[in-house]
Amino acid sequence: MKKTLDEKGAVLILVLLLTVVALIAAAGLLYMVARGSAIFGQAKRYRTAVQAAKGGAEITFQWIGDRGTLTTPLDASWDQYNNPDLVNKLTTPTSAWPNSYDNSIVIDPARPATYDIAFTLGDYRVYSKIVDTVAGNSGPNTGLQNSGVVNTGSGEIVVVSMPFLYTIEELTQSKVNPSERVKYSILYQY
Fold it and tell me: pLDDT tens-digit profile of 137-157?
């Protein structure tokens, strides 16, 4: 009878060890499922922030195309315009800017002096700043308004257009959760 009790004790210890291993495996599996859901949620919020940043960049491009006059159909979304002389920033090279213009790439939403314009786009806040301008001779985009694609006379002078180059910094972040944010550095030719 003693041998049977020892065998039962060994089996009990073995079953307890297997139960602990099964519990550890189940806990690990539950942790991986929960962590995977959290990572999926973060990726989804990041993709949403990226889409808002792309939309903000398009609005900033419209604003540059209008030479800072804010005549785009989205005027209602413009709620902060920090530099009243931004037309100067759009049309002169960086070397001709006054020292009061901040041309660092840092954008701090808490300090309005670190960005040029800010606007709301859905649940996101977009902060844009021109940090460098290389002058060209382009005016507003006129598309194909010339007389044609071929010179009609031998004495015509062909105007060569050299576009402005703008280096733009953009920060887009969620109004609800500021950790959901995207920062773009854009080289824009207009």
Answer: 655 555 545 555 555 556 555
Tell me the backbone φ, ψ of residue 165, rounded to 5 degrees.
-115, 130
Comparison of pLDDT for 75 and 94, the residue scoring more:
94
82/85 Cα distance (integer angstroms): 9
Please enumerate in sequence order all residues whose Cβ is within 8 A of that of 34, keeping only pairs 6 or more positions apart, or say none: none
d(CA 106, CA 168): 11
Q: Which of 189, 188, 166 is nearest to 103 (CA)?
A: 166
Q: What are phi and psi of 30, to 5 degrees?
A: -65, -40
In terms of Cα–Cα distance, which of 106, 66, 105, 68 is closest to 85? 68
What is the residue type of 131?
V
Let me know: does 172 contact 56? Beta carbons within 8 Å: yes
Q: For the full predicted model, state whether its pTM sits above 0.90.
A: no
d(CA 98, CA 28): 60
Q: Where are the alpha helices (DSSP H) in the chain?
A: 2-65, 86-91
Beta bridge partners of 78: 119
The string of pLDDT tens digits covering residues 59-76 is 888 888 877 666 555 544
Please list the helix, strand and coil fractions of the chain in percent, rounded to the nearest 5, in that order.
40, 20, 40
